[in-house]
Design goal:
It is built from twelve helices and eight strands. It has helices at 47-51, 78-92, 104-115, 137-142, 148-158, 161-169, 178-185, 192-203, 210-213, 233-242, 258-261, 263-275, and strands spanning 6-12, 15-22, 30-34, 56-61, 98-102, 122-126, 220-225, 246-251. It has an eight-stranded mixed beta sheet with strand order 1-2-4-3-5-6-7-8, sandwiched between helices. The mean pLDDT is 91.
C-alpha cells in the first residue's frame, strides 16, 4: 500500500468491506480492482502503483477474503456480492468507473454491469471466471454441515498449500518469492475465513449465461495468459465471442495471475483501452 493510500473498513449490506483508496487527482478517472477466489487486494500490489500514476484506484477485499468480513449470515452469491460492490461505489460517490476484475473478480464485474448497465464506463477482465455451473446438490448440502469449514481447510492443506497453488497459477515459477508467499498466505491465517468460504461454496449460483453476456453493452478488455491452467484461454475466446463489445489480448509466457506476472504490460494495455475514444 502506498503512503498516500487510505485504508478503510465500512459496513455495507450487513458485512464489513475493507478497501484501499489510492487518490491520483480529483479530475482523474477511477479504476476499481476486484480480486479472485482465495485471494485479496494483495494480488494487485504490482499493478496499483502503475495505475495510480494516471488514475484514482479503489482496491477492494471482496468478502469473505482479505480483511473484509466473513459472516456466515451474509449471502455470498454473485448477485449479492455485486450488489454490495455497487453499494460501495454509491457510498464513495464513484460515478462511471473502470471496473477491473481478476478470475472470480471478473465474474463479479460482469454481474455488476448486468445488474446496472450504465454503472461503468469500461470494464477489464483478467482471466475472468465464466460459464461455471452452480455447485452440485451434494456439495451444496455438505457445505451446510457444522464442520464443513474444517473439511475445506483440510482439502486446501492436502492440495499442497499456498506454494503449490501459486505454482498452478504462475507460469514463471521464479516469480514466487517469500513476499508473495507471505501475502497469499495471510488470508488463511484467519480461521473465520474458512467458515465464510463454506458459505460462499453453498451460495454461489451459476455464472452469467451466454444470453445475458450478449446483452452487455459496456466495452470490455479481456487480458489472458496463454498458459492459464485455471481458466484456460479457450474460455477467454468464448467470452470474447459472447461479449459483443469486447477485445481479447493474449499474453505470452503468462499463466493465470496476470496482474502479478505482467504488471507493466497489463498497465499499458489498460491505459490504451481506457483512454481510447469509443
Amino acid at each position: 500500500m502506498s503512503q498516500t493510500a487510505e485504508a478503510t473498513m465500512i459496513k455495507l449490506n450487513g458485512i464489513n468491506v475493507y478497501y484501499e483508496w489510492h487518490p491520483s487527482s480529483p479530475q482523474a478517472e477511477t479504476v476499481v480492482l476486484l480480486h479472485g477466489f482465495l485471494s485479496s487486494s494483495f494480488s494487485f500490489r504490482k499493478l496499483v502503483p502503475l495505475l495510480n500514476r494516471d488514475y484514482n484506484v479503489l482496491n477492494v477485499d471482496v468478502p469473505p477474503f482479505g480483511k473484509s468480513g466473513k459472516s456466515t449470515k451474509f449471502l455470498y452469491s454473485y448477485k449479492n456480492i455485486a450488489t454490495t460492490m455497487i453499494a460501495l461505489l454509491d457510498k464513495l460517490g464513484i460515478k462511471k468507473p473502470v471496473l477491473a476484475g481478476h478470475s472470480m473478480g471478473g465474474q463479479y464485474v460482469l454481474n455488476m454491469i448486468a445488474l446496472q448497465p450504465d454503472l461503468a464506463r469500461k470494464a477489464v477482465l483478467f482471466c475472468s471466471s465464466s460459464y461455471l455451473e452452480p455447485p452440485g446438490r451434494l456439495l451444496s448440502f455438505g457445505s451446510m454441515l457444522p464442520f464443513f469449514h474444517l473439511a475445506v481447510k483440510r482439502w486446501l492443506v492436502k492440495s499442497g498449500g499456498v506454494k503449490k497453488n501459486l505454482k498452478l497459477v504462475v507460469h514463471d515459477q521464479s516469480l514466487i518469492d517469500e513476499d508473495m508467499l507471505r501475502g497469499y498466505m495471510q488470508p488463511f491465517l484467519d480461521k473465520q475465513m474458512f467458515r465464510g468460504l463454506g458459505r460462499l461454496i453453498h451460495d454461489r449460483e451459476g455464472e452469467l449465461r451466454p444470453e445475458a453476456l450478449r446483452q452487455i453493452k459496456t466495452p470490455c478488455l479481456l487480458i489472458w495468459g496463454v498458459h492459464d491452467r485455471v481458466v484456460p484461454l479457450d474460455v477467454g475466446k468464448r467470452l470474447h465471442g459472447d461479449l459483443q463489445h469486447s477485445e481479447l489480448i493474449v499474453l505470452e509466457n503468462t499463466g493465470h495471475l496476470v496482474p502479478e506476472e505482467r504488471p507493466k504490460e497489463v498497465y499499458q494495455h489498460m491505459k490504451e483501452f481506457i483512454e481510447r475514444q469509443e
